[in-house]
Amino acid sequence: MPSFAVDPKKTTTYLSDLVSINSINPDLVRNGAGESEIAEWLAKTCSALGLEVSKQEVAPGRPNVIAHWPGKGKGKSLLLTGHVDVVSVEGMTIEPFKPQIKDGRLYGRGSYDMKGGLAAILGGIEALRRGRFEPTGDIYLGFVVDEEYKSIGMEALVQKIHPDAAILTEPTEMKICLAHKGFLWLTLTTHAKAAHGSDFVEGVDAILQMGRLIQFLERLELEVLPGKPHPLLKRPSAHASIIEGGLGLSTYPDRCDLKVEHRLLPDEEPADVLKLWRDEIKRLKTIDPKFKAEVRAEFFRPGYEVEQNAPIVKTLHRGFTQALGKEPSYMGMGAWLDSAILGGAGIPTVILGPTGSGAHAAVEYVELESVLQCASVLAEVTALWMRK
Fold first, then answer.
1. Quick one: average pLDDT of 299-315?
2. How far is the C-alpha of 334 from the C-alpha of 252, rounded, in Å?
3. In 248-367, which residue ranges form alpha helices assigned H by DSSP?
4. Residue 388's pLDDT is what?
5. H or E element: which one contains 83?
6. Which residues lie closer than 8 Å to 58 by C-beta, 6 or more apart?
7. What fold, for 8-180+304-387?
């Protein structure tokens, strides 16, 4: 049985209010509303809960909100965190910022990714405050900007605070997530020789040359990457994303660019991937002296994994069991999360969040019962962490 009772009405109101605020990431969508309005709402809500509140200006008009519940002893500190930005609403078939409740689900952009998790944080803290809980260590709530683009919010937050552990409330279907993949964006470029389309003697086709690298990409997917299994994440993967080239229908193209994304396991680095491509380019040059190509890394985010026997994971397992009366399941996630930045800063982090569907999709919703369950678990885990 849970030690602290979550208020369903108040927690649902938190969620509804959050979803009703347009917080489209302005780096993803031109003229996106940004995070300033939702930051104001969070600051007022956390102040009403009796927490100390500050804003951390990460970019103009884009503040993180940091709420602090000071501990009264020497207990360990804990961060409950998530991002406040959402993606585009283009193509949505429901009202994105007019939350609707139907059949136990709350619909709207960001309801699942990840304002359901933010509402769970607030609902859990409200339950602790109402239950007169007195923490022995510092409790932090971190509501960060820009996770959907380059995560400048979390990068700034870890420069400001350094708790003993963190729980990230990204949606996990109420499973405990221990690992997620990283990613690397690459640009492959083939160089050839432009000529009139009739001049097959002089012309060298850069797009045709790129076809050889695309064939190698297929070999990676079918033969190489399946040989790198992971117990939670299955295997790494790679795919072609964007291809550009050509000067005109009657001209041999002198250049072709291919954008490739690799999804990486937690122990993989950019150098590992770049070596694969450079070795293949070298091999192709030995076969055809006219083949000219290069590869460069554009952007990298590392994967992350926390041990199942880490103290914060063991505490979450115990709190989950006590709050919900059942054992949790464990999972890994293919998507990249801010937990990699937290872990890279030396903050052990575990992920737990509500159930739903439609992240970045035309119809998005979160299961209300799972938000309440998540809030109950967060309250229980926070209390247990302080008692250790």
1. 97
2. 40
3. 270-287, 311-324, 339-344
4. 55
5. strand 78-83
6. 64, 144, 145, 146, 152, 153, 156
7. Aminopeptidase (3.40.630)
Where do we find the tokens 């097959």?
Answer: 200
**CB burial string 338-368: b at 16+ within 10 A, e below:** bbbbbbebebbbbbbbbbbbbbeeeebbbbb
Compute the residue count for the chain.
388
CB 340 within 8 A of CB 83: no
Q: What would the mean pLDDT of 275-291 be, rounded to a whole number? A: 96
Percentage above 70 pLDDT, the chain: 100
Domain ranges within the chain, ordered by starting residue: 8-180+304-387, 182-301
Token couple for 193: 């020789």
Q: Is beta strand 62-69 parallel, antiparallel or unpaired with respect to 255-264?
A: unpaired
The whole-chain average pLDDT of the chain stands at 97
Helix, strand, coil percentages for the chain (3-state, nearest 5): 35, 25, 40
Q: What secondary structure does DSSP assign to 147-189, as a single string?
A: TTTT-HHHHHHHHH---S-EEE----TT-EEEEE-EEEEEEEE
Report the CATH architecture of 182-301: 2-Layer Sandwich (3.30)
pLDDT value for 381: 98
Please choose, from the candidates 298, 39, 316, 74, the residue with its C-alpha nearest in 3D space to the C-alpha of residue 178. 316
Rounded to a whole number of angstroms, the distance between the first and last alpha carbons of the chain is 19
DSSP, res 255? E
Which residues lie below 8 Å from residue 22, measured CB to CB, with a gap of 6+? 33, 37, 96, 97
In the numeric block, the tokens 């009739």 are attached to: 198
Query: 378 phi and psi, to 5 degrees?
Result: -60, -40
Q: What are the tens digits of pLDDT across the range 60-95?
A: 999 999 999 999 988 999 999 999 999 999 999 999
- Is residue 127 within 8 Å of 378, Cβ to Cβ? no
Q: What is the pLDDT of residues 208-224, one digit of tens each?
A: 999 999 999 999 999 99
Residue carrying structure tokens 């923490």: 135
